[in-house]
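Summary for the funding panel

The consortium committed to producing paired sequence-structure records for every protein in the target list. Below we show the first two records in order, beginning with the earlier of the two.
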Amino acid sequence: MTYRPATAAATAAPTRAAALVASVLTADAVLHLYWTTGATWPAADGTSLSHAVLGTDVPFTPPILLPLAALLLTAAAFVLACSRRPRPLLLRLGTLAVAAGLSLRAAAGVYWLVAKETGTTFHWLNLAVYTPLCVLLAVATVRVARWKDATRAR
């Protein structure tokens, strides 16, 4: 077994992927925290917001939003930590769990493209933003979870 030193490009790619995933998940958590205040931006009211984000009528209340924000921040932390210390099994498993969650949301998004009513705000946001973003983030998260540093046996 030969030792191959890590190149800057080889270590930068998973770090950039982790930064992308963590940034998007953190921004989503901040939006959820913002909605706990009763604000409904970018929608006119809570019902419109619910229909645009989820495609159905769900209350945007702190008991629902706070756990989601905590989950998003925890997911971001796992991915970032795994990119910094790729060896611990717990960090890799946590990062793979994030990838599984993102993959599940992407699969649901594909299903919703054919199962939900077309022409709605949710349909177009799901088509243009939610599902493609979840696919991109799932792939990036898997890349972080699979990354092996130079000190790991190959």
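The next record, for a separate protein in the list, is shown here:
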Amino acid sequence: MTSFFGRHRPTRATAAHARFRFRTWRGERPFWAGLFTFKAALPILYWPYANLDPGALPLALSTTSGAGSLVIGVLLMTLGVTLWYSPHLRFFAGIATLVLALVSFPVANFGGLFLGLFSALIGGSLACSWMPPDVPEPSTAAATHVSAAAPGGDSTGGS
């Protein structure tokens, strides 16, 4: 692997740098909420269109709920990606995820046989409870230095 100037960089250093960048990116947004929300869409989308054949008994879960499952699944995927790339919309996306999870229970074959329902409930709850990391404030050493040099000699305010 080469850098911009054609110099070779060790693969191990490149992998470590990529992992560090991903961990930094993941820490600045509700990553796990987005992951649970995105993964909730998969069973909700899958089960209405699945044709299973356990042994000689064909089992078809495709029902009239296919269109509703498709809409709910696509919206959950969109909300999961929204949580990753627009963390300031986390509360809206969390509430929308919770509402879609509850709607998926009667509409989408028990919320994707409860797999999608529980995953969406966890993702929506994580999204609503996530807070952005605190930004460190500027150093207070300058403020302490100014208060110590105040007239009266004592920084505690007493005589």
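Regarding this second record: The two ends are 68 Å apart (CA to CA). Residues 95 and 124 are 6 Å apart (CA to CA).
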